[in-house]
Amino acid sequence: MLRHFLRIEIDNDLLTAMAERWRPETHTFHLPEGEMTITLKDVAILTGLPISGDAIIGSTTKPEGGWGPLIRDRLGFDMPTTTPIQGRGHPPLNAGQVSVPWLVSHIQQEVEINDETPEEQVERYARIYLIGLVGGFLFPDKSNRWIQGIWLPLLTGDWDAIGEKSWGSAVLAGVYRELCTCSKVGAKQAGAAMFILQLWVWEHLPMFAPPDPRPYRRNDDELNFLQNLPYGVKWIGANTNDHQPEHSLLFYRSELDKPWWNQVIWDPYPREVGELHHLRHPLDHETWLCKVPL
Length: 294
What we know:
Layout: H1 12-20, E1 22-23, E2 28-31, E3 34-36, H2 40-47, H3 67-75, E4 93-94, E5 97-99, H4 100-108, H5 119-138, E6 146-148, H6 159-163, H7 167-182, H8 195-204, H9 223-226, H10 249-256, H11 271-280, H12 284-288
């Protein structure tokens, strides 16, 4: 389901303005009328990521024998550790990080998958795609050029087990941590899955949202398309209006200073959306009501 979010246009000015309102002490946005924050429910409903599975934990230390053998075992090919990337001073495998451009170019050189492709090779491609999706989209670094090798052990083994892990809570913790970092004076970039913050703002603070390109209504023509996808998919194709002067960083800063509490939508998700998510992940409802430290 995550692949649909790759097409969402990011409004950098909006995210910057929200990061300026973030307070690391409380993990909340401090606004004129009070505090708000992204919750597990928001992540679960908007992205469809499970939040009630096993925790995303593992080792961050260099594996015995180095990263090369682990990558060869998981991805099925060797990565150069000495040959620099064209135009760059670092090799494709550098200090436990895999180069995204090199990985993409390597896959494009392979034979196209068809009905006669061996299952083992199809699975290898699928794992490479998952590693790119998780390491490069859900947990990206600030450059968007490197994927941490620590994700490799988590994306191997049983396919169903991979999908049942609590990816939603890990992503939310990553967003919290990145907001704590980029809210400091002098910060210029942000990693993590910041598209979730943008979707959250659009849902809860509709005065900042672009026109909804896919309204989610019962009996809507696109309900059949949306009912098996996360609620946030409805924003695909929305124009962030970055090119318009009124949607600038100064505009967002000014608007966030105004008392607009009567415009906040505290629970923006229709009942049928929660019911559909419950069918996909029955235990999530109990989890997102818990009051526990992340």
